[in-house]
Design a protein that fits this description.
Elements (H helix, E strand, L loop, with lengths): L8 H12 L3 H14 L4 E7 L5 E6 L6 H6 L27 H7 L2 E7 L8 E7 L2 E8 L4 E7 L6 H5 L4 H18 L4 E6 L2 E6 L11 H13 L5 E11 L3 H5 L6 E11 L4 E2 L5 E5 L2 E2 L3 H10 L9 E2 L1 E7 L4 E2 L10 E2 L2 H18 L110 E6 L3 E6 L2 E6 H18 L5 E11 L2 H9 L1 H6 L3 E4 L4 E8 L7 H15 L5 H16 L9 H12 L14 E5 H7 L5
Parallel strand pairs: 1-7, 12-15
Antiparallel strand pairs: 1-2, 2-6, 3-4, 3-6, 4-5, 7-8, 9-10, 10-15, 11-14, 12-13, 16-17, 18-19, 19-20, 20-24, 21-23, 22-23
């Protein structure tokens, strides 16, 4: 007697349903993806009982004939791919041909469809229960398809028992609908839950979809999440090297392929305690990819506090042959052929957008980067700090502002061993009309100074005129702007200035070392010794004097001059922990950022430290030249604003 038997079609479909259909949202996802692939312009999703009792998805797509509708109930029947080669360049949302038969095998399904076309007068209706076709008949129907799924998992009590509460299942479905709404702003989308309309998004005009996509995305995000967060636009198109490793070894020509990254990211300081507001799309498909998640965190590395996550809605568009979407049963994950390159490119595009955020006068020049090499973070010529701008004398009792003069001296409260070198920046500083820089004014202009354009109403705080008022609690610097009250945390601001100054020294190869009075040795395990040995050249470039002193022993004779208050041995062991956590991918720049961020906090001016007006002016001037001046290296804000309207509300002057 044979023990190995071929499973029946019904059992096979139910097994497939276990992989594809995890919960009600899986049904919604598969049906909506089919509707999108059918060139629909309107989709309506209706559920009841958290999707257990009813899921109905209607569209106005191309529809199906009766024979196509019956064929769609067969496993691996699809119109989207034909050959094996098609799997390497998938451009549709669905492609396997498993969803419809899998859903039909675990529910009571009705398919009502009619092909689009004036010559098609009637459609067809197919009723299925538990994978068995009950009836097939002609029916009147609008062009498109409506699929109704009732009593999900009615024939699999064990699966039904493991479903979560109705509220939980509803929240999963609603989350997926929001992803579709953001990914397809040109799609009219309606979502009905237990007879109540939750979302109804109008369709964008077809001729505006490309030129107005950012505006449409902002509008949909406003409808979904409100308008409270400050978001930065990202829009970059570049080319990168996609040459396979074997072709590189064979000396074949380089293959450059296009890549586009666009969308919205949160400004420095905008974050959440979870990843719920991180929406990543690859070729319009919502995905979860570790490389993209790491790229996002890399970009915000010194702009977010630990345990906080960025807000974003980003779309990565690249050649379908460069991404594999066939690695997960539910198509939730993707894999890039050049994973490391994609991560590096995305991280640097986002970092550039965050750095440019502080300069509202910067135009689109340089925003379009034609080649990956333009994104490389290279040492820029140092920028001589401008003289301190004069401020208009206000008719108040505020202290007079001293005459402007060049800032050439070191900060009086700079720590020993940290030179006051100019912060490396490629930002074109443009001061508002109430500021002027005397050193840049010619004699011919002395008679009449033409004010420069005032910043827009939503301009970042460091680009608007600020008038110094005083210091609160020996920590917060108070300024007045045309928009309200501005407070600066002197510790966080100085920490950011020191961090970027030390990073500039590191990138220019000017890190100073201090010799230890007594050298120390540290003995490590075999694996740790091998890891340290690989990174010795990097350590030396960072000013860390670490040398082999045996098979597993290392001699420490110098440390960077900014390392204070820690023993050399403990410093190396802590650094080893970071290396062990990050693995061998930790670069010199990553190591420098970690080191400098952790020690700039100790070097910065503290709360209760008294700073004079000259130091305050110099601090604010240097802060303006920082790449990311609005947060300290640990993600805390350096500067906040209390608007005039908020103050008036506090005093009940407005309602």
């Amino acid at each position: 007697m044979n023990r190995v038997k071929l499973l029946s079609e019904q059992v096979a479909n139910q097994i497939a349903a276990g992989e594809v259909i995890e919960r009600p949202v899986s049904v919604v996802k598969e049906l909506v993806e089919n509707a999108i692939d059918a060139q629909s312009t309107r989709i309506t999703v209706e559920i009841a009982g958290g999707g257990r009792m009813l899921i109905r998805v209607s569209d106005d797509g191309i529809g199906m004939s009766e024979s196509d509708a019956l064929m769609s109930l067969e496993r691996h029947a699809t119109s989207k791919i034909q050959r094996t080669e098609d799997l390497a360049k998938i451009s549709t949302m669905g492609f396997r041909g498993e969803a419809i038969p899998s859903i039909a095998s675990v529910s009571r399904m009705t398919i009502l469809t009619r092909e689009r076309g004036d010559d098609v007068l009637e459609g067809c209706e197919i009723c299925i229960s538990g994978g068995k076709i009950l009836s097939v008949k002609a029916a009147g129907a609008p062009a498109g398809t409506t699929i109704e799924v009732r009593n999900l998992f009615f024939n699999l009590p064990a699966r039904r028992k493991f479903l979560k509460s109705e509220e939980t299942e509803r929240s999963h479905i609603q989350h997926y609908i929001t992803l579709v709404a953001m990914a397809y702003p040109g799609l009219a989308l309606t979502y009905i839950q237990d007879g109540k309309m939750i979302f109804q998004f109008p369709a964008g005009k077809a001729d505006e979809l490309e030129s107005m996509r950012m505006k449409l995305l902002k509008e949909r995000m406003r409808l979904l999440y409100g308008a409270g967060d400050d978001l930065i636009e990202v829009d970059n198109s570049i080319q990168y090297d996609s040459t396979p490793d074997e072709d590189i070894s064979a000396g074949l020509p380089t293959q450059m392929v296009p890549l586009k990254l666009w969308g919205l990211i949160g400004a420095p300081g905008v974050s959440r305690s979870s990843r719920d507001r991180q929406h990543l799309f690859v070729n319009m498909r919502p995905v979860d990819n570790k490389g993209l998640n790491y790229a996002l965190l890399d970009a915000y590395q010194n702009a977010l506090m630990k345990g906080r996550y960025p807000v974003c809605c980003l779309f990565l568009v690249l050649d379908p042959s460069e991404v594999d979407v066939n690695i997960h049963p539910a198509k939730k994950e993707v894999k890039f052929h050049k994973e490391a390159a994609i991560r590096r490119i995305v991280s640097r595009i986002l970092r550039t957008a965050l750095e440019d955020y502080s300069d509202p006068f910067k135009r689109d020049e340089g925003n379009k980067l034609p080649h990956e090499s333009k994104l490389e973070r290279m040492a820029q010529p140092s920028l001589d700090l401008p003289t301190r701008p004069e401020m208009k004398t206000a008719e108040t009792n505020a202290p007079a502002v001293p005459e402007s003069r060049p800032y050439t001296q070191s900060l009086p409260f700079s720590p020993i061993g940290v030179k006051n070198v100019p912060i490396k920046s490629d930002r074109k500083m443009t001061y508002p009309g109430q500021y002027r820089v005397p050193s840049q004014v010619t004699e011919a202009e002395n008679t009449e100074i033409q004010p420069e354009p005032m910043p827009p109403a939503n301009a970042p705080l460091l680009t608007v005129p600020l008038r110094f008022l005083g210091v609160l609690n020996r920590l917060y610097l108070l300024f007045e702007s045309d928009r309200g009250l501005v407070l600066v945390d002197q510790h966080a601001a100085h920490e950011r200035v020191l961090f970027e100054r030390l990073m500039a020294q590191t990138e220019q190869g000017k890190v100073e070392s201090q010799q230890l009075l007594l050298s120390e040795t540290v003995e490590l395990g075999m694996r740790d010794a091998s890891l340290i040995r690989e990174k010795l050249p990097v350590f030396h470039r960072l000013g860390i004097g670490l040398h082999e002193f045996g098979e597993r022993t290392f001699l420490i004779d110098s440390l960077p001059s900014f390392i204070k208050g820690i023993s050399a041995k403990k410093f190396i062991l802590d650094l080893l922990d970071d290396l062990r956590t990050a693995g061998r991918e930790l670069t010199q720049a990553d190591m420098a950022e970690e080191l400098i961020a952790s020690h700039s906090c100790r070097l910065a001016v503290k709360a209760n430290d008294i700073v004079n007006r000259e130091e305050i002016d110099h601090l604010m001037d240097e802060l303006r030249h920082c790449r990311m001046p609005y947060t300290c290296p640990h993600g805390r804000p350096t500067i906040i604003e209390i608007s005039q309207r908020d103050l008036e509300k506090k005093f009940r002057r407005v309602l």
